[in-house]
Task: structure prediction
Amino acid sequence: MAVALSLAACFHVYSSQSSFVRPISEKAEGKVFYHVGRTADGRTYATRLVRAMADNVCVYIAIVSFQNGSTSTGNALTYNIPIPELDARPEDIPQDRSSQFDASQTSQSGGVLQVFVPEKNPFDWRPSG
Result:
């Protein structure tokens, strides 16, 4: 893949998104040229934009992100916390203990999680017609 040649060997594909934009016209005679654009270069991550051109028309586009395998990213890919050990079923936990647990997890999330507060009227009812 030509896009990988634009980076050091320590980078590997982290994610890729692509789309076929349109079919190749007969005027192109089967000739497709790939153009690689550098959109981001960093120590840890890099991104490339790949365009496939046939008869000077873009027929395919891809965004490929790379991650440096030799650089530690810390806990960047930690998505979940371990399930707590419980002595009872969730339905048996007193509401105040459940609220304490929710509050502790919310405070540890750095603002990513928010405590769920049910709305009194969650729907906005409007007459139609």
Remarks:
- Residues 95-108 form the longest helix (14 residues).
- The mean pLDDT is 81.
- The beta strands are 11-20, 33-41, 45-54, 57-68.
- Helices lie at 95-108.
